[in-house]
Write a structure and sequence with these properties.
- The chain has 7 helices and no strands.
- By secondary structure, it is mainly alpha-helical.
- The chain has 2 domains: about 55 residues, no CATH class; about 100 residues, no CATH class.
- Helix 5 crosses helix 7 and helix 6 packs across helix 7.
- The radius of gyration is 18 Å and the shape is globular.
Length: about 180
């Protein structure tokens, strides 16, 4: 426990982890005592790590309350990641040197279009549509629900796309340092 994915190493994994954390905090009714008892203490962390985890969760709870996302939605810090990834995605699509990225995107696009057609939120960025699909898939897997072949095919392609986008993000992030 308390191994937060490294944002610079894998931005997609980090964002999915943060979305899951938001849902876990909601499941515990944003109650730091429940989180301490049910998440932090069972992890048997050192005193220092225990305090660090408590403060981290408490900070997230305060942000969720102040941003009004106690019941649904995402923290601004997580929305900013979607914005950054969407900006990068659009830059990559306009870069003639990114043929491999474009090819992966165009293989993914039919699945994005289908997901957006089924959704009542057509105003969200394509990158967010992809993350929402993967997050939903992960929830289905956790619930041990059956996944159709068509869904698995779509998710596999979306994951390839998000993996490539994450790699591009990491590369650009490292170049900017």
């Amino acid at each position: 426990m308390f191994n937060i994915p490294n944002k610079q190493e894998n931005i997609a994994e980090y964002l999915l982890y943060m979305w899951q954390t938001e849902d876990i905090l909601r499941a515990y009714e944003l109650d730091i005592d429940q989180i301490q008892q049910n998440l932090i203490e069972p992890a048997h962390l050192s005193e220092e790590k225990n305090k660090e985890a408590h403060e981290w969760y408490e900070g997230l709870i305060m942000m969720m309350k102040s941003e009004g996302v106690q019941k649904e939605g995402h923290l601004q810090i997580n929305k900013n990641i979607i914005t950054d990834l969407t900006d990068l995605h659009l830059r990559l699509l306009n870069d003639p040197k990114e043929a491999a990225y474009m090819a992966t995107y165009y293989k993914t696009l039919p699945f994005i279009v289908e997901l957006r057609a089924k959704s009542n939120r057509k105003d969200i960025p394509e990158t967010e549509t992809c993350f929402t699909a993967v997050y939903g898939y992960l929830l289905l897997k956790l619930q041990k629900k059956e996944i159709s072949h068509e869904t698995q095919t779509a998710i596999d392609q979306i994951i390839r796309f998000l993996r490539l986008l994450s790699e591009k993000y990491k590369t650009i992030d490292q170049e900017e340092e």
